[in-house]
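Bit of a strange request maybe. I'm writing a small parser for structure token strings and I need a real example to test against, not something I typed by hand. Could someone generate the tokens for this chain?
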Amino acid sequence: MRHGKKINHLGRKTAHRKAMLANMAASLIEHKRINTTVAKAKALKQFVEPLVTKSKEDTTHNRRLVFSKLRDKYAVSELFREVAPKVGDRPGGYTRIIKLGNRLGDNADMALIELVDFNEIYNVSGATKKKSSTRRSRRGKSSAKATEANAETTKKEDSSKEEE
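Reply from user aminoacidic:
Good idea to test on real output. This should exercise your parser:
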């Protein structure tokens, strides 16, 4: 039984698991989204979110702490230079896991894990506006618009008759 065991060992020894998560986190930071299995995506989410939180405050100490986990200086510089300013106001939840279905070869559950603020499809700022309409206002506005349209057409007809 696995009572109280919170970490998913992913069928690997400790050193292999830490190296794999570090490599996956570096790839996620570099490419902003990666495809992997659902179990690895959930483990990666727990691994990378504290690193992104540390990157919000750019100090030498935080850079060294993040480098000790990631072991990739290019990923660390990208995290502090590009990712941190975009997520500065977000209180958490920096990654999104989207389930994709099963892999053909071994039927494993696959998922796409991505950094939330770097998705252009969901985060089109300004292009999508929230519609604030209710049934009452819709009915009232449509009847008001209809009366205005009727009034404009009658004015046009009157002006065309006067010109003749």
